[in-house]
Amino acid sequence: MKKEGEFLLALVGQPNCGKSTVFNALTGAHQRVANWPGVTVDRMSGWFKTGGHRLEIVDLPGTYTLASLSLEERITGSFLIHETPSLVLNIVDASALGQGLVLTLQLREMGIPLVVNLNMMDIARKRGLEIDVAALERLLGVPVVATSMKKGHSKKALLRAISAQLDSPVKVEPLSLDYGRMEPFLRDMERRLSSGATADGAHPLRWTAAKLMEGDDGAEELIRKNRSDADHVIGSARDNRKAFEEQSKEAPEVHIARSRHGIANAMAASCITRPAPPVRPDRRGRLQPFCGTGHAYRGDVPALLPFNRPGL
Ligand SMILES: Nc1nc2c(ncn2[C@@H]2O[C@H](COP(=O)(O)OP(=O)(O)O)[C@@H](O)[C@H]2O)c(=O)[nH]1
Ligand SMILES: [Mg+2]
User: Fold this and answer.
1) How many CB atoms lie within 10 A of CB 154?
2) CA distance 261 to 12
3) Which pLDDT tens digit goes with each residue over 238-287?
4) N or C: which end of the chain has fewer CB within 10 A?
């Protein structure tokens, strides 16, 4: 539980994006390790001060998405839903931007207070990638801070961004992604969720609708906890999932994941001002080290990205 004047900061990111490096840089020696209840996954937490604020920071298990499939995803997803951190710090590997943004988009769909830390900028630069950080910030609608935390570069800028968010928290509207042919099904679920007695107003309707269409256990649990008409809502979600699959011959969760990956890659492509050079064998026919990075971003940048851009 947070004490008066204390804030809870959750560290979220995909494996190997530098989460522990950022955690260590922020907390120094002020760390403790425990287990998450009932499982043998380490729960790292610590504290630090910035701009007169004292923050407890929890390093959540690295996860590629927030689907409730793996243990790591379930721990991280459940913490974000139930512990309501004051702020989420999402670490993204700048050298694999499209992949990293898949998780960022999910956090933006939740509409939770967020600062994005684009880490590993040194690696991205070394590979020839250039990223327009301001453009990414505009698209995401939340602050983005570029760092190379292994060398401690831009740690102060990151601390400033964190304390600015705590000083004057800006209510961020959840990002609404376009799920194409699933839209009518999502609208139906949103309509059902908005009617009747509901105590789950803390989470955006659209996010809840999409989680139910994914068949996410965590979302069903949330509905059961908060709604007297839970059976009815969950039953409708199952009907909608079945109807979508019959109509489009694709599992709803696969469609959602594929759409989100497409949007993440399009977003990355539109922010990468210079992509990594293409893969080219050297004179002996061997592939150059690091040359695979950036392949996902080459090709056509869509003129109009298929999502609602904040501020446009
Ligand atoms: N070059 C470079 N390496 C980094 C940076 N941040 C982290 N690393 C390295 O990347 C690897 C993975 O980092 P780690 O913090 O363990 O990632 P985690 O899995 O997200 O906790 C480690 O070898 C770090 O030293 C960075 O900004 N630049
Ligand atoms: Mg780690």
Assistant:
1) 19
2) 18
3) 999 999 999 999 999 999 999 999 999 999 999 999 877 776 677 777 76
4) N
Tell me the CA–centroid distance for residue 252 and ligand 1, in Å: 34
Measure the CA angle with vertex 46, ends 45 and 51; round to 5°.
135
> 122-131 burial by CB neighbour count: b if 16+ within 10 A, else e?
bbbeebebeb
**66 Cα: distance to centroid of ligand 1 (angstroms):** 21
List Cα–Cα distances, 310 to 97, 136, 215, 239, in angstroms: 19, 11, 28, 32
Distance from the CA of 259 to the center of ligand 2, in angstroms? 28
Report whether CATH 3.40.50.300 matches the domain 6-167.
yes
Note residues around ion ligand 2 (Cβ under 5 angstroms).
Answer: 19-20
Which residues are registered as beta bridge partners of 43? Answer: 34
The CA distance from 25 to 208, in Å, is 35
pLDDT tens by residue, 33-47: 988 888 888 899 999
- Determine the Cα–Cα distance for residues 265 and 196; give it in Å rounded to an integer: 38
How far apart, in whole angstroms, are the C-alpha atoms of residue 171 and residue 68? 26
Name which residue sits closest to atom 14 of ligand 1, judged by CA: 18
Ligand 1 atom closest to Cα of residue 16: 19
Ligand 1 touching residue 120 (CB < 6 A):
yes
Residue nearest to atom 28 of ligand 1 (CA): 120
β-bridge partners, 144: 116
Q: Which amino acid residue places its CA nearest to atom 3 of ligand 1?
A: 150
